[in-house]
Design brief:
The structure is a single chain. The protein is an alpha/beta fold. Helix content is 42%, strand content 14%. The strands form 2 sheets. Strands 9-8-7-6-5-4-3-10 form an 8-stranded parallel beta sheet. A two-stranded antiparallel sheet has the order 1-2. Helix 4 packs parallel to helix 5 (139-152), helix 6 (165-177) packs parallel to helix 7 (201-207) and helix 10 (248-263) runs antiparallel to helix 13. The N and C termini lie far apart (42 Å).
Amino acid sequence: MKYTQLGRTGLKVSRLVLGTMNFGPQTDESTSHDIMDAALDAGLNFVDTANVYGWGENKGRTEEIIGTWFAQGGGRRDRTVLATKVYGNMAPDDSSVWPNHDKLSAVNIRRAVDASLKRLQTDYIDIYQFHHIDRSTPFEEIWQAIDVLVQQGKILYAGSSNFPGYKIAQANELAARHGRMGLVSEQCLYNLAERRAEMEVIPAAQDYGLGVIPWSPLHGGLLGGVLKKEATEGRRASGRAADALKDTKTREQIQAYENLLDKHGLEPGEAALAWLLTRPGVTGPIVGPRTQEQLDSVLRALELELSEELLTSLDEIFPGPGPSPEAFAW
């Protein structure tokens, strides 16, 4: 396993992040535990979750599965860098949301962290992430709440998710004025097919010393060899990938991508992960294997060395937006 520092911190994390969103809704508890054991045995020490994972009536279920895994002992918790998130309400449906039971008020942050700690069966969270910006709560209040949690030993670092660049700057400028550490990571949508984060989010993260943690590195399966699977296995795309393939230009783009990687003898999903590992500022992408075979595949991405010729060809198929402001001003 390869490791790197998380942003400007001294924390060492694996270059792949184990995403757990499937644990519960798609992967049962026993299989989830097996995947986490295999990942830890491979040296993958960074685990990401969120309090709302499990969804609907089962919100919190994913954290519970991780908690029962920790409870087995064997150094599981001690060897794991644990990240979870706060923002969404924990009610089973929107109609039953109670005031102050969501977003980033000091009241909800305090309530949510205690509930997550109980489900996770641990006494601290390494990285407590804001799942979305809260337009109603000032960062003065948010940082005050985080200060208390750090002093209590309940969290070690704070991170963001789905933040625009200006909010990263706003949060960390205020933190610096008060001698606080501020955000140390940003989890954003970023992959070959979706590169808008390169305009503002990633430059802001780099300037402020945040580690970038891309989610959906295969863009909902679109970059995982979807057309090949359709042709050879009869497996049709679903969700975001299926919607994207309705566009003729996108379908042609994905076909060119798969043809290019076939020419180089590479699996599309593994190459898409390896590409992210070459990007400036990226700590590691979140991978969400549902089986041992999928875990083996994502681990192989760490060993891939993409040639300059291949990287150039990928840029031609999936051109980035270019730097800001030139991308939209000139």
